[in-house]
Specification:
Number of domains: 3
Helix content: 40-55%
Number of strands: 15
Distance between the termini: 91 Å
Shape: flat
Strand content: 5-15%
Structural class: alpha+beta
Radius of gyration: 29 Å
């Protein structure tokens, strides 16, 4: 076998063994859920029953692989309002709509423009829901020729207008977010009527998938054709047919090999500066959308054997890149769904791109894989692994270096997953604390988190209850609390809502409705508001405990590290000092062998369990060191420091002996001496703990000496 053939095999084995097929919870996926929740909590109209229904599209929803190199460029959201929808021209208005829809709905007909896949939305009917039957009665508007124009509806303070989308600027390594407003269409559009009946030579997609996609309809998004964006009238009234829902289903039906190829083509085109980084479908430049279209056609037109027999990612990529080049030369880039729609036009820039693609051969692509893909992947490995790529001048050395990466990647899978769960827990708590919460956003959180990992919805319920308890404790009106709580009516169709949870939610809502307009800290511990806070806190602790127990099933003892941190704080808050002491001592022992420490967030939802001394330290930390707000580690506290503080407080309140206190002081001193106390808050907590112990021990010694 030639050196090129050996490199082909090395590249293929590398990709097959380093691309994980079940993505772990990630900051990208969670950020997408947070976007959905923010959208769901905003009312685009004065009518509070009008809601924006979010849909996450693009790479976040389409990929189920997780390669070593980041494969997601941004987060795409496509919300639609529940008081409007689109239908094909001439189609009768619907009489039934999903429960999420408003009782009054405007219906727009899709009018063809002179450009394929682009339409105008002409107002045609108003639908009014009949309270008795639940069916909608239609009334045709007398005035015709009224077209829907683009609505600039900001979703919260974080989003700013960016072309046709509202972009949430990325901070540091956080990906930007694009939000494109859409109008829902529950019918398959006639512009794409050839796709369902088109003969699929090799059975992909199968008939069941096609039927599912057609039944789900499409969307119409607020994007004008690039040739029309300078026209004052068309630029704000032209809409594009979107098949994002269909694409999500199709890409998730791909074989892992096909998803990997799609990822590789995107990375190659981007690093080779052959396309724009954003995924629009304009014809002047290439984008991820063009690569996706190429892959969709290839999956339909190539037999399964072409992908998997004698598998070589280099061979597959070269053939597809050459196909792309031919399409560009001929200025013929067929849309996958829409009949007679061309995605490119004659362009000198695209001809130059085609020329470069035609020059790509096995040798050049193999070099790219080694230099720009595998070597870049090695940079995230430990130094002893990455240094192997300092000298890969022979295929034997290359194979040795790649094997080291593969072994490291496979051996860290479990630890990476546990670390990801730790980070996601913090992110969920932070997002819930920062953004307002409504019944709609709460349902959105639970539904979307269940798609990532159903256990995260359990954790969210715990944090949501803490959030509401904190708001009541700060004096929020009970009316707002009731509006922010979902009821079992909204949750029955979701993945995780066992009977106990549904009963609990209804119980909380019932208690909330009985509460007067007063705060829980009004002084009378028997007020209904106080009872509601107690119920919420207790429920949060139980859900948090359940979540950690569920993690323990997959991760064993590693996930039980500080498995009861919220339970410990709750015991301390309620004066159960013996239980708090017992649990805190257990946590100290567990931390000695922990691979991943789950830090405690210092956000209001968790602070409500702490005493005045710790709360004062947190406030002092933020005053003297504002950078503590910037990163996860500086806005959390190590559970070891917190456990030592709680042990000390419980021992003091329970009147422990001088010997017991001295042993605890020794542990605190060791923690300050041997552990890296890099963060201001942890340093202050340990110093405060040490001072409390020294002061009390000194008094005990003086008392014994006096006697």
């Amino acid at each position: 076998m030639s050196d090129e053939g050996v490199v082909e095999n090395i590249v293929t084995k590398f990709l097959l063994n380093t691309c994980r097929l079940r993505p772990q919870p990630s900051d990208v996926a969670l950020r997408a859920v947070a976007v959905c929740a923010v959208i769901a909590s905003e009312h685009p109209d004065d009518d509070e029953d009008v809601e924006s229904i979010p849909l996450i599209t693009g790479s976040v929803a389409e990929f189920y692989i997780e390669p070593m190199l980041r494969h997601i460029g941004d987060i795409d959201a496509m919300p639609y309002d529940n008081d409007e929808l689109a239908i094909p021209r001439g189609h009768p208005p619907p009489t039934q709509l999903p429960a999420e829809y408003h009782s009054y709905v405007r219906v727009y007909e899709m009018v063809d423009s002179d450009l394929s896949a682009y339409v105008y939305l002409e107002r045609r009917y108003s639908l009014t829901k009949c309270t008795d039957s639940g069916r909608y009665n239609a009334t045709e508007y007398e005035q015709h020729g009224v077209y829907l124009s683009r609505k600039d509806v900001p979703y919260g303070h974080a989003f700013e207008l960016h072309g046709p989308a509202r972009k949430y600027p990325g901070e540091h390594d956080i990906l930007p977010i694009d939000i494109v407003q859409s109008v829902r269409c529950f019918l398959w559009p006639p512009q794409a009527d050839g796709w369902p009946s088109r003969h699929k030579n090799y059975g992909w997609p199968n008939s069941a998938t096609v039927d599912h996609i057609v039944r789900n309809g499409c969307d119409v998004v607020q994007v004008a054709h690039h040739l029309c964006r300078q026209d004052e009238w068309m630029s704000i009234r032209q809409f594009r047919l979107s098949f994002s829902r269909a694409e999500i289903v199709l890409l998730n039906s791909w074989m892992p090999v096909q998803q990997i190829v799609y990822h590789l083509l995107r990375v190659f085109m981007k690093t080779s500066q052959l396309m724009e980084s954003d995924s629009n479908s304009g014809v002047s430049t290439l984008s991820n959308y063009h690569i996706k279209t190429l892959m969709l056609w290839a999956c339909e037109l190539k037999p399964r054997s072409w992908w998997i027999d004698h598998l070589s990612f280099i061979r597959i990529c070269i053939e597809l890149l050459h196909t792309l080049a031919v399409w560009l030369v001929e200025a013929r880039y067929p849309h996958y769904f829409v009949n007679r729609c061309n995605l490119v036009d004659n362009s000198f820039a695209l001809e130059m791109t085609a020329s470069r693609l035609l020059l790509t051969d096995k040798h050049s692509l193999s070099s790219w894989f080694v230099t720009d893909y595998i070597r870049q992947s090695a940079r995230i490995c430990p130094e002893h692994v990455s240094r192997l790529f300092d000298d890969v001048i022979t295929t034997i050395k290359l194979e040795t270096a790649v094997s080291a990466i593969v072994n490291w990647r496979q051996n860290t899978t479990k630890a990476d997953m546990l670390r990801a769960f730790a980070l996601v827990q913090y992110d969920i708590a932070l997002y819930v604390s920062v953004f307002s919460m409504s019944a709609s956003s709460c349902v959105c959180w639970i539904t979307e988190l269940s798609k990532i990992d159903w256990r995260l919805s359990v954790y969210f319920i715990a944090v949501a209850f803490l959030h509401i308890a904190h708001k009541i404790g700060r004096g929020s009106s009970i009316d707002k609390v009731v509006k922010s709580l979902p009821t079992s009516h909204f949750l029955v169709s979701s993945n995780y809502y066992n009977e106990l949870t549904l009963l609990l939610l209804d119980e909380v809502v019932t208690v909330a409705r009985k509460c007067p307009q007063l705060a829980a800290n009004s002084g009378d511990i028997k007020t209904p508001a106080f009872e509601l806070v107690r119920l919420l806190q207790q429920s949060a602790v139980e859900h948090h405990k359940t979540f950690r127990q569920l993690l323990a099933r997959d991760f064993g003892s590693e996930s039980t590290t500080v498995a009861t941190d919220l339970e410990v704080l709750y015991a301390y808050k309620n004066g159960n000092y013996q239980q708090c002491l017992h649990l805190s001592t257990q946590n100290i022992h567990a931390l000695l062998c922990a691979e991943c420490i789950l830090r405690v967030p210092t956000i209001p939802e968790f602070i409500q369990f702490l005493d005045d001394d710790i709360v004062s330290l947190i406030a002092l930390t933020l005053i003297i060191n504002p950078s503590c707000r910037d990163t996860i580690y500086r806005s959390t506290v190590c559970p070891e420091s917190l456990s030592l503080y709680l042990i000390t407080q419980c021992q003091l309140k329970l009147g422990h002996s001088l010997t017991s206190l001295a042993q605890t002081l020794d542990k605190v001193t060791q923690a300050r001496r041997y552990h890296k106390v890099r963060w201001t808050l942890e340093h202050l907590i340990l110093k405060l703990t040490e001072r409390k112990l020294v002061t009390h021990i000194t008094k005990l010694i003086e008392t014994e000496t006096a006697h």
